[in-house]
Every structure is written in structure tokens, then in C-alpha cells.
Amino acid sequence: MAKISAGVATSHVPAIGAAVDLGKTQEDYWAPLFAGYEFSKEWIAKEKPDVIFLVYNDHASAFDMKFVPTFAIGCGEKFGIADEGWGPRPVPEVVGHPDLAWHISQSVIQEDFDLTIINEMEVDHGLTVPLTLMFGQPEAWPCLVIPFAVNVVLYPPPSGMRCYRLGQAIRRAVETFDDDLNVQIWGTGGMSHQLQGPRAGLINKEFDADFLERIVNDPESLAAMPHVEYMRNAGAEGIELVMWFIMRGALDKKVNELHRFYHVPASNTAVGHLILENGK
Length: 280
Fold this sequence. Notes:
The chain is α/β, with parallel strands linked by helices. The chain has helices at 14-21, 31-35, 38-47, 98-110, 125-135, 160-174, 205-217, 219-223, 227-234, 242-249, and strands at 3-10, 51-56, 71-74, 78-81, 94-95, 116-118, 122-123, 144-150, 182-188, 256-266, 269-277. The model has no long low-confidence stretch (mean pLDDT 97).
């Protein structure tokens, strides 16, 4: 049967993708950030996942104010790269796993989580930047990817606890899929940052450090944090961190922490990164 072997959490700052695409990764500003992902690239090359279930948020590329689903799963065979205003990123198209995506949809919906089924959509930096950070610049992504979009843009977003429980349901779904697959689940977005208003540029290192520690070792307590606390302590866009709980809920309660990295700033954002492994 399929098995979730590991979880990855990472920020998905658009400027990171631009730095890669423009060949700036070794510049003084960017080099320390990319150094934090060298272990990750070596690790994932050895792990060779068959499928990545990638949790991210769309940035008005696939959806707009006319239609914003809380949870949307990509069940198509392929997903193109969105033009976010300066042309599509020069990265490979994303190849999905429709059979597994439909199986997860069936199982999770039967557990009373409402998902929107997406058969055609383009994916933006929220999904492509994490792939670039982990895989570099291949001609084709070395594994299949199931995009899973979460609304953290239009109020109200889902709670951390809702996301955590959804992650648990996704794990149950994966483990009832017949094919022998090595599946990873990634939670992306965050960490503390605010892009507009009087607090634009906010970064809260203490909050971020506490979040990284607790999502590893005390996720259920942390998942109970209300939305207002993210707003107060991590900025308006810090709410993206609820997506990490889908990843964490799909893992064992006690995990092996293989890698932790934190860096500020990347553009005007704090970057956090974790690799968590289920017991073997």
C-alpha cells in the first residue's frame, strides 16, 4: 500500500524563485538562504519520493475573488505554470497522479471534509518555489505532484485544528491506496510576514522559533491557536502557517526531525524550513 514517509515544511517567497531563475543564488544576499537547503537537496535525492502531496495557497492565479475554495485538490494529469505578471517561471510543468488524487478525494469527502475537485488549473510560485528549493532546476520534476490549494487569502481561512485533522484524514486515505508508493506531504507558506499597511515588513523571530519547536513536538496544542494570534504576532500573511498543520497531521505524533532551518530576511519575509520523518 502507499505510505507517507516524510513531511516537508518551507516558505514559498516569490523572490526566491526569481533569484534562482535570474542566477542570483550565490550573491551575498541570497547565498545564506540557499545554503540552508543543501542538506534538503541531498536528502530528497536519496529518498526518491514517488508522489508529493503539496499543500500551498494560490495567489490569484487559478482563483480570484469570484471563486475561492477553502480546500481544492488537483486531480488532473498535468498542471501548467501560471503567468503572475512577468511571464511563467521557466520551470517544468507539474505532472499529477490522478488515481491517487481521486482516491484521496473520495476518502476525505466521506470523512466529511468538503474538497473542491480541480481538473484543470495553473500553479503559481506557492507550489513551484518549494519544488525549486528541494530539486533545483531539473528538466522535469523527478516525481509526481498532487497540488492541494488552501484559502489563506480571503477571510475566513480554515483553522489550524481543521487543517491538522484534515492531514490525519489524508494519511488514512493514502494508506488505503493499493499501489506501493513512497508519498511525501509538504506544507508551504509563512513564516511571519506582512506585505501591506503600517506593519509591512513585520518579522517576529521569537514567534517563528516557538512555532517551529511546537509544530514538531506539540502540534495539537499549537493547532488550537486562533486566527487573531497569527495576525497579532506573525502579521497578516503569517496565517499561511496553518497549511503546515495539514503536513503535520499526516505524520506520526512523534517524528524524527532531520533538518531545521530559519533565515531572515528573504525579500521582506522570514523563511522557515523543516524535514520531518515518520518512524521507520
